[in-house]
Amino acid sequence: MDKLNIALWLAEHLDTVIGFIVLLVACLILPKSVRWYVFSAGSALLLMSVWQMARAREKLKKLDAERSALQQQLSGLKDASEQLKQRNQALEKKSAELELQRQTLLQRQQALAAGDVALQQQQDDINQQVSDHSAQRDAVQSENQRVLDALAKLKQLEAMSQS
To answer: Which parts of the chain are coiled coil (predicted)?
Structure first.
């Protein structure tokens, strides 16, 4: 396992090792009067390069962790969006059914309105049912609007997390 770690370290820092070897060879070739200046400057550049690479790796790890968190959040948002779409479809279906029932009751109400005064109680019952259905339909439409607003918000969050 130790050899593997050494091999990985060499693979990551091969450019620095080669640079240090080239610096040593250059220092051996140069005259003694400039050798230490070149070695000092070259070592400083190599150390700065190593430091920059280490900082870049740290930033990359942080960004990768953030990307993973955003992908998980996006997955959750997609699931929530799908659930809201299904809920919206169910509410739209319920709203259509209630509207159909309301139309039927309105037709019955109109038929009873032309009828006898003795049927007034039945007409009052139907009126009550019509208003109950209207209230239910309004509640369903309100719930549907809330779901649509939440769905739009999720789509906006999804678009923000993808960019």
So the answer is: 53-108
pTM for the model: 0.49
**CA–centroid distance for 160 within its chain:** 7
Separation CA 55–CA 136 (nearest Å): 61
Q: Which pair of structure tokens corresponds to residue 43?
A: 């070592």
User: What phi and psi values does residue 114 have, to the nearest 5 degrees?
Assistant: -85, -10
Helices 32-113 & 2-29, crossing angle to 10 degrees? 140
The alpha carbon of residue 51 and the mean position of all alpha carbons in its chain are separated, in whole angstroms, by 34
In the chain, the number of structural domains is 1
**Residue 47 structural domain:** 2-162
Q: Which residue has the tokens 């690479």?
A: 53
Rounded to an integer, what distance in angstroms lies between the CA atom of residue 129 and that of residue 94? 16
- The tokens of 49 are what? 């390069």
| Biggest CA pair distance of the chain | 124
